[in-house]
């Protein structure tokens, strides 16, 4: 087959050469022009043929791969059906054997009653936690017990006989009055193996399509998890029960961590009971907070009275700290024992004038207590850190500087106290930058639920970091970009860190290598094109504005001569003058990622942009 393909290609090539020779004769091309024309057109034809063959091979390979996947899936489905049929046949055979053994027993009433009470011939297999889950084993145990009409009061005893190891420990931990309660033993086994309502809740919410699993199997698995979650949550298995279950889940997600812990300690499951318990917890916290605030003025007064007789240097802040509040008891006695404070300037550190009368108040220090501007319509006022940016000389770099986010100039706050990686303004993030991850941040009010914010990958260029990093997206932060303690450190860095796990060898070579020295400018190329004798006819075609040879077109762009082929998707090719052709070939052969190919391959590669 390969020889036939090769012979067909050779014959097509001969026909193409003959056709090009006839065309060159019609165009009255002679000597080197004719050979160049034929070679050029022949190379273009060979390139088209090779690309067409590669496309055909890719399509055939894709078809074979799809057929292989289809056969593989059919084989796996057939094996699964065969396995299920084998299991059903095995269970049916075991049941038939057990029924035969039961029928072979004496039929007297006494023996029948004794057999029913002791049930010695029921084929209960021992539980093996390594090969079977306790959930599947309990389901099979109940089915077998119902099939043989085993009395319910005997279920717990027979189940305990089949337990081993960790499962039997759960039975021994039961109180004596529950040793015959099957439901109590069943619940203890599920708790022992961490198969509670909460575990099925997590499985239901976190299930994903597994390998070699269809969406039908995933749907069945989710249905089972939801049923177990509802059954073990002690909710009625009705529409109202399912409604209360989902409502309770959403209500718990809205609680703070402290409130959620308190509600879980109360062991309430109904949504209304959860809401009442949460309100009761918040009311108790609010009362405790109010009593603490009421006790602070008295304690402040006692501390002030205990320090009478001590002389302190005049300090405006310290004097403000001991001023009595309106609810401080005995304010008259306090003022009589403490004379009014003297004037003092915190800027000049002397008592020539007071701080409020100082002329230097136009340059105050400022403290940033939040990374977000307070807005009545937006509850995103988060306190991640208290960053103090002092004016004047400081050994540390400025906190607010200019940076680039996705190519746009923004103001950046370098916050060493911010515990998150970065925060960015929502208007600077495009929809394609968002990722599936979210983060929760506690607001100023600890009684309010955490705020869930989206995250995005953004391109950052700043003094501390350069590259693509994760950032929390907010609508109205105090600055366009806030860099946290992961990237910001005290002192000025010599160069920004690159946000990437490792530097590849190519990146290291790029950083260590010098930039290419490009001496040739467009004016030199333009003059060389005009002076090249071999390009005069192409220059004439471009000046006349008519297609050359009836197929290709030559034109001027920014003063340079370009060529466009006859193909619909052809690129604009720069016509290279003769003095620069060797340089273009050398660059295409020895440049990065060129693989140092041969002359023909290099020529085919650079012809996309050069002629």
UniProtKB/TrEMBL annotation:
InterPro entries the record matches: SCAN_sf (IPR038269)
Superkingdom of source: Eukaryota
Comp. bias regions, Basic and acidic residues: 84-97, 286-296, 351-360
Biased composition (Polar residues): 297-321
Residue ranges with Low complexity bias: 104-120
Residue ranges of the region described as Disordered: 84-127, 286-364
Protein name, per record: Zinc finger protein
UniProt organism field: Biomphalaria pfeifferi
